[in-house]
Write a structure and sequence with these properties.
Blueprint (H helix, E strand, L loop, with lengths): L1 H11 L1 H22 L3 E10 L4 E12 L3 E3 L1 H11 L2 H16 L12 E5 L2 H5 L3 H12 L6 E6 L7 H14 L2 E7 L6 H4 L6 E4 L1 H4 L6 H17 L2 E4 L5 H9 L4 E2 L8 E2 H7 L7
Parallel strand pairs: 2-4, 4-5, 5-6, 6-7, 7-8, 8-9
Antiparallel strand pairs: 1-2, 1-9, 1-10, 2-3
Helix pairs in contact: 2-3, 4-6
Bound molecules: ligand C2E and calcium ion (3 copies).
The site of one calcium ion has 5 residues, from β6.
Organism: Rhodoferax ferrireducens
Protein name: Diguanylate cyclase (GGDEF)-like protein/PAS domain S-box-containing protein
């Protein structure tokens, strides 16, 4: 019965078959999208404890010519699986740094940071440090304004190599945030060895922070941990002022979420920052 069941699932389940075909099609489309520059970035603002603007996070978007907007939750894991994340990551970095380069000549923007998400596979690639340095040199963006968001899963193995790479980039002026903190299983003993600047409380803990005592404890623990380690702690997914106030009351130093703004395209961000239009 078991074998038959497996057979059914493997070869005759039309839904699964469709999913497999769909995935292959999506992969082919993503490959094409990367060739034809269909991917672009949107930017979400980040704020300090006084809610002043401190920077933005760049988030990838893909507008498929037929399917319309494809969620990063679908195309980022696919890109990681297929290795396309290397090209995707290269394009993201180039776009983000090109915009960042326009910020340094204006007093209103020269202290803002640009946070860029880096996938595990991308960070582990041997050419990553050089790619960062080259992209900064090519665009003229300042390393001190670039923040890389890494996830805990990066710390699963090769920890010495990871630390070595992070230190090389830190020496170059780049800073680091640990994204989705609390969702993985990073060993706390690693935490103090990593040249981190920031911990990011995952939005899954922020969402119900006012109603779920477990989430409240986790959020407060992360804030306390960050304080003990001398790290800035940012909460993501902050949607209302009650959440912000609760986190502030417990010492959270930075915020990001719909309360402050949704991710917006570059043109809108340029307007918002009152920068002169790009030449
Ligand atoms: P993430 O890095 O944890 O990004 C936060 C996600 O939460 C974003 O989803 C953002 O749009 C969403 N968000 C922001 N504020 C709120 C809020 O107040 N409420 C709610 N409910 N959601 C909020 P998005 O843009 O769909 O990205 C999903 C994930 O895809 C990201 O999670 C990140 O892991 C990945 N991703 C996006 N862009 C890139 C990229 O350029 N490179 C890599 N490697 N991953 C990326
Ligand atoms: Ca992120
Ligand atoms: Ca996150
Ligand atoms: Ca919960």
């Amino acid at each position: 019965a078991k074998a038959a069941g497996r057979n059914t699932v493997g070869f005759f389940d039309p839904q699964l078959q469709a999913a497999v075909t769909d995935k292959a099609a999506l992969e082919a489309d993503l490959r094409l999208a990367l060739e034809q520059d269909e991917l672009f970035l949107v930017y979400q603002t980040q704020h300090d404890a006084q809610t002043a603007l401190t920077g933005v996070e760049a988030l990838a978007r893909w507008k498929h010519p037929q399917r319309g907007m494809v969620s990063p939750a679908a195309f980022i894991p696919l890109a990681e699986e297929t290795g396309l994340i290397l090209e995707l990551g290269r394009q993201v970095l180039l776009q983000a740094c090109s915009l960042l380069a326009t910020w340094q000549d204006h007093s209103a923007t020269q202290h803002l940071t640009m946070a860029v998400n880096v996938s595990v596979r991308q960070f582990k690639h041997p050419g990553f440090v050089q790619q960062i340095q080259e992209t900064l040199a090519l665009t003229g963006a300042k390393p001190s304004q670039l923040k890389l968001e890494l996830t805990e899963s990066l710390l699963a193995d090769d920890i010495e190599l990871i630390i070595h790479k992070m230190e090389a980039l830190q020496a170059f002026g780049v800073s680091f945030s640990l994204d989705d903190f609390g969702t993985g299983y990073s060993s706390l003993s690693y935490l103090k060895r990593l040249p981190l600047d920031q911990l990011k409380i995952d939005q899954s803990f922020v969402r119900d922070v006012l109603t779920d005592p477990n989430d409240a404890v986790i959020a407060r623990t992360i804030i306390g941990l960050g304080q003990s380690l001398g790290l800035n702690v940012i909460a993501e997914g902050v949607e209302n002022d009650e959440q912000r106030a609760f986190l502030a009351q417990h010492g959270c130093a930075a915020y990001q979420g719909y309360l402050f703004g949704r991710p917006i395209p570059a043109e809108q961000l340029v307007q918002f920052l009152s920068l002169p239009a790009a030449a």
